[in-house]
Design goal:
Elements: H1 2-12, E1 23-27, H2 33-45, E2 53-57, H3 58-68, E3 87-93, E4 98-105, E5 111-120, H4 124-138, H5 141-150, H6 152-168, E6 176-180, H7 183-193, H8 197-201, E7 210-213, E8 216-220, H9 221-226, H10 229-243, E9 251-257, H11 264-273, E10 278-280, H12 288-298, E11 303-307, E12 311-319, E13 330-332, E14 338-348, E15 353-355, E16 359-365, E17 374-382, E18 396-404, E19 414-421, E20 424-431, E21 437-441
Parallel strand pairs: 1-2, 3-9, 5-11, 9-10
Antiparallel strand pairs: 3-4, 4-5, 6-8, 7-8, 11-15, 12-14, 12-17, 13-14, 16-19, 17-18, 19-20, 20-21
Helix pairs in contact: 3-12, 4-5, 5-7
């Protein structure tokens, strides 16, 4: 993709060089740090220089785009006209994930996140899977497996046709939904079951609600809408819980972006559940993330504040206290000192507000040994707001930093703080004796 885009750009813009391009790669906001780091590594292996690459969170990109666009709604409301201090929810409904963030408008048109990103795998592919399972139910599960393995192009073509119908389906009009079925699928049904698709349908109990005419499968609208049920219930339930949270009180609008947001069924489900909230869907909602990523690339500082999804910190040791520490964490060091190991030292707590580009909550760490030349600081993450030990369930090592320390003695210290710039994290270490600052990007472990 990178090579194709470069070739097309160079053919259309005379004198354009690879160094002239800054690349923005969009990722779901609900992804963890390791997944985002994996995408950066993949982009770098594709030939994109690290300093020419930014990662943008998809709902944030869409939000920026819609702030620049007058997303009109009946009555003339739009995201771009919301005043400072007003909140709105961004629902980025893609194929795989549903990504949700809540933004507040700041002075100068910038945005801040007021609740950590959330969501789940309830996107449009869930609806596709329900449809494919339904075809398996009508015919035979082995038919679907054989069709997918032996006729992949036709399988994808069937999904494409279903995608078009999926976005346009409107159950208020009743009637039938027509889906074109590849001839190879009909042949798979005949070869595997010994019956034609038409004959198989007559034994299903659906009667005239499902019919076959040539290569056209015709379904009642309510059968088509049943494929959406699980996805819609999960989305609406999650939104309801989210809007009850104190920090989300006063949300004035729900901005629907992403390809799945073009589905009338999804739009109607949200309008019915939240009649007092404005529902806004921009033109070409499926392109909002793409266009917003371009804006983000030019103005990454437009998002001024985020909310930490996780608790971040360092695995450290402290003097063992039998009244406070479990015996299993007691360890005798080579200098004879008895210490408690695997202690969580929290730098950022899940739910903390993070001002983009500013250092967070400095913590000081000391050498254990007199002649120690380096501090090795393992970095951990957890969803727990008050973790005790880095070996607890849910705690995960995501990387480490090694900081040189000058002189000798155990009274030397290094201040450690985290900088959440953009969508990635930098660890800044300050040696107190010399003032030397070391900045390191966390190489998140996969």
């Amino acid at each position: 993709m990178k090579e194709d885009l470069t070739n097309i750009s160079e053919s259309q813009v005379a004198g354009l060089k690879a160094d002239d391009i800054h690349w923005v790669l969009t990722v779901p906001a609900i992804w963890n740090d390791s997944a985002k780091h994996f995408m950066r590594l993949a982009a770098e292996q594709a030939g994109i220089a690290s300093d020419k690459l930014s990662l943008a969170l998809e709902p944030e990109a869409a939000s920026l785009y819609c702030r620049h666009l007058r997303v009109q709604r009946e009555g003339g409301s739009s995201i771009s006209t919301l005043r400072v201090g007003k909140k709105y929810l961004v629902l980025d409904a893609g194929g795989g994930t549903i990504d949700i963030t809540v933004h507040e408008v700041c002075a100068g048109g910038n945005l801040k996140e007021v609740h950590k990103a959330s969501g789940g795998d309830w996107g449009g592919t869930k609806v596709d899977a329900e449809f494919m399972d339904f075809l398996g139910e009508l015919t035979d599960t082995s038919v679907m497996q054989i069709f997918k393995e032996d006729h992949m192009e036709d399988y994808i073509e069937l999904l494409r046709d279903f995608e078009i119908k999926k976005r346009a389906v409107d159950t208020t009009n009743g009637g039938k939904i027509t889906i074109k079925v590849p001839v190879s699928f009909l042949e798979c049904v005949q070869d595997t079951t010994g019956q034609s698709m038409k004959n198989k349908l007559q034994t299903t109990g659906y009667g005239k609600r499902i019919t076959m005419a040539g290569d056209k499968l015709r379904l009642d609208a309510d059968i088509m809408s049943s494929f959406f049920t699980t996805s819609l219930l999960n989305i609406v339930e999650h939104l309801s819980d989210l809007l009850q949270k104190p920090e989300c009180k006063g949300v004035e609008a729900i901005l629907m972006v992403g390809g799945y947001s073009e589905s009338i069924l999804l739009q109607d489900a949200i309008k019915q559940q939240f009649p007092h909230v404005k529902i806004l869907v921009p033109p070409e909602a499926g392109l909002a993330v793409l266009k917003g990523a371009v804006i983000y690339g030019h103005c990454p500082s437009a998002i001024t504040e985020r909310v930490s999804k996780y608790t971040y910190g360092i695995s450290t040791t402290e003097t063992f206290d039998k009244n406070k520490h479990p015996w299993s964490k007691r360890e005798v060091f080579s200098d004879g000192t008895i210490r408690c190991v695997d202690v969580w030292s929290v730098i950022v707590t899940a739910g903390d507000k993070l001002v983009v580009g500013e250092a967070q909550n400095e913590r000081e760490y000391f050498p254990v040994y007199e002649d120690q030349e380096f501090l090795h600081l393992p970095i951990f993450v957890t969803s727990d707001k008050d973790p005790k030990f880095t070996t607890d369930v849910g705690s995960k090592k995501v990387g480490s930093v090694t900081v040189p320390v000058s002189g000798s003695g155990t009274d030397r210290s290094v201040g450690v703080r985290m900088i959440f710039g953009g969508t990635e994290i930098t660890v800044e270490c300050v040696e107190k004796a010399t003032g030397k600052i070391t900045q390191l990007d966390i190489a998140f472990l996969m």
